[in-house]
Amino acid sequence: MPHGKRFEAASGKVDRNKRYTIEEGFKVLKETVEVGKPKFDETVDVAINLGVDPKHADQMVRGAVVLPHGTGKSKRVAVFAKGDKQKEAQDAGADVVGEADLAKRIEEGFMDFDTVVATPDMMGVVGKLGKILGPRGLMPNPKVGTVTVDVAKAVKEAKGGKIEFRAEKAGIIHAPLGKASFTAEKLKDNFNALLDLVMKLKPATAKGVYLKGVAVSTTMGPGVKIDPGEIVARHR
């Protein structure tokens, strides 16, 4: 599929055969943004290619991290809780709170939220929504802190820029790093926070090269390859 003129012009800023340092990579990324600026604030994404096979449970890389500068997007948070926990969630800024009544609304098509948090005692209700929430990546999970008794903390983190990630079939993680309007420094901080956690989550059963490749790009822009060696060296 042919790319547009802006993409082609932005691609001219990127050396396809080079793996940039983190410093250089985000400088180049910002240069691609300046080429014929789009009418909207694009998202900056990262693709992380890992030497794992997620089909094996002991090689799944999954987690959540609060990005230091947030994602640039306001998240709507739905919380499943009872009694006092409902008030805690509301006071923390939850957008919608409920129990069986909220489950019924979701079954009827209500999906005006980006994150779902649940107290452990509500998982019997939430579990029945697996076919709706699961395919959208919205199912609460204790591993990423969205099944918890501390609903206030979970809501504040979600609102403050917490992202969840997991390795897909080919061992690739896709995650947002912020907006194209962010400074290179803020994007670097968010990038480092995510990559530091991904490196710590290396499965003991992963063989060979763990971090095979990293690239950052804007929604409509070309990919900029980052040298994985610099990241690996930080974690030796």
Characterize the structure shown.
The structure is a single chain. The protein is an alpha/beta fold and 236 residues long. The protein is built from 9 helices and 9 strands. The chain has helices at residues 5-11, 22-34, 83-92, 100-107, 123-127, 130-133, 151-159, 184-200, 228-234, and strands at residues 43-50, 62-66, 77-80, 96-98, 115-118, 162-166, 172-179, 211-218, 224-226. It has a 4-stranded antiparallel sheet with strand order 7-1-8-9, with helices on one face. It has a 3-stranded parallel sheet with strand order 4-3-5, sandwiched between helices. β3, α3 and β4 (96-98) form a beta-alpha-beta unit. α2 packs across α8 (184-200) and α3 (83-92) packs parallel to α7 (151-159). The longest helix has 17 residues, at 184-200. The radius of gyration is 19 Å and the shape is globular. It starts with a helix and ends with a helix. The mean pLDDT is 92.
